[in-house]
Specification:
alpha/beta; single chain
Length: 195
């Protein structure tokens, strides 16, 4: 997709604040420090559009970005940062649960995992959480430029095995540094929003 126009519509914490434009939505979820901002910036072809927080785990809102009047891209708060309090983790859970459960315009979720490591327990919980609400999921392995070519296929297989991703679902490699994987991600997004 050629991104001609993008704007931040709102940073929301409750359903009453969600945009009313009824456009199809794709959400992006992942651990703090997985490279979510870099992936969003590459997808929308804007350097520094989605900013990384100076404190991982600090952003506790759903950020709704409208792209080309065609769709909303929703940045879900990062999870799994150790210094976040129990109360903040509960708040994060409530924000995500309300969104995944109730949002009728949500057409799919992209779950980012670090391609250099096996998915964490938090990644597994998030994957199961999204599955529970029967949302289509695309798993994207980030930072694959840091994995040797010989080990990339094995990394993707391990991610698939740990998360128990069905054979019918994709696990895609990506690298913001090498600018790879984004055409495949857009293809998946376009298939979802066309339905």
């Amino acid at each position: 997709m050629q991104v001609k126009d993008i704007e931040l519509l709102i940073s929301a914490v409750a359903p009453a604040q969600y945009p009313k434009n009824q456009l199809p939505e794709i959400a992006m979820a992942g651990r703090s420090n997985v490279g979510k901002s870099s992936v969003i910036n590459r997808l929308v072809q804007r350097k520094g559009f989605a900013r990384t927080s100076s404190q991982p785990g600090k952003t506790q809102t759903l950020n709704f970005y409208q792209i080309n009047q065609d769709m909303n891209l929703v940045d879900v708060p990062g999870y799994g940062y150790a210094k976040v309090s129990k109360k903040q983790r509960e708040q994060f859970g409530k924000i995500c649960e309300a969104y995944f459960q109730e949002r009728e315009t949500l057409k799919g979720v992209i779950l980012l995992v670090d391609g250099r490591h096996d998915p964490s327990e938090d990644d597994q919980l998030m994957y199961d959480f999204i599955r529970y609400y029967e949302r289509p999921i695309l798993v994207v392995a980030t930072k694959m430029d840091k994995v040797t070519r010989n080990h990339q296929a094995g990394s993707l297989q391990r991610i698939r095995k740990v998360l128990q991703v069905p054979k019918s679902d994709l696990v895609l490699p990506s690298s913001a540094l090498a600018n790879t994987g984004y055409e495949d991600i857009w293809r998946w997004i376009e298939q979802r929003i066309a339905k």
